[in-house]
Design brief:
Helix content: over 70%
Distance between the termini: 77 Å
Number of helices: 10
Strand content: under 5%
Largest sheet: none
Radius of gyration: 20 Å
Number of strands: 0
């Protein structure tokens, strides 16, 4: 008997997906936290759909832990870079990127809410599309230490990961095929992300 015939020809599909998928999810969410152009919510929802259809135990739990940890690490790194920019005479490109995505009116609102409600605003900012950076900048302006920001950001990242994972589970439960659930979850998360911007444009004076 040929020993090659007895060896498994291929790695089991779910094992391959886990070996590649979780590190990829971590990296993409981490990059998305640092460079806010990656739709991280859609990534988490899509990964949750795939995990929902897997037979491996704790697949959904691993998606949750991976997403929350990556988001937390990315936020902490960006806040640290922002603090360095605040202390620098010439600022930094990271601080400039945060300011560019935090218009003056939204920064003022974030500062008022942060002064009134503290950490609760930081938690909610992760759940509101485009709400994370104005509140992060408000924390930088208020000179929050990194440790204080981290304490508030941890529950924020956990709540964010749970929310988008639930969207993925919903998509996975509605469709028999994983790819159908992924498409539904991604479309839903993208709609959620663009809805506030569309609403603000419609409310502007003179909007058609």
């Amino acid at each position: 008997m040929n020993w090659l015939a007895a060896a498994p020809a291929t790695v089991p599909p779910e094992t391959t997906q886990q070996a590649i998928g979780y590190p990829t999810l971590f990296l993409l969410v981490l990059v998305g936290a640092l460079v806010p152009v990656v739709p991280t919510g859609a990534l988490v929802s899509g990964a949750a759909v795939v995990a929902f259809h897997q037979t491996a135990p704790f697949a959904l739990a691993l998606v949750f832990v991976t997403a929350a940890l990556a988001a937390f690490c990315g936020d902490i790194a960006l806040y640290w870079l922002g603090r360095r920019g605040m202390r620098s005479r010439n600022g930094s490109r990271w601080l400039g990127a945060i300011r560019a995505r935090a218009p003056e009116d939204r920064l003022a609102q974030a500062q008022e809410k942060l002064a009134a409600h503290g950490v609760a605003v930081l938690v909610l900012s992760r759940l509101v599309p485009a709400g994370r950076l104005p509140v992060m900048l408000a924390c930088l302006v208020a000179e929050w230490p990194l440790r204080r920001f981290a304490r508030g950001n941890l529950p924020a990242c956990l709540a964010w990961a749970v929310t988008y994972q639930l969207i993925g589970i919903l998509g996975g439960s509605l469709f028999p095929e994983p790819w159908e659930g992924v498409v539904a979850a991604v479309v839903l998360t993208l709609l959620i992300s663009v809805a506030p911007g569309v609403w603000r444009r419609l409310r502007r004076p003179g909007a058609a």
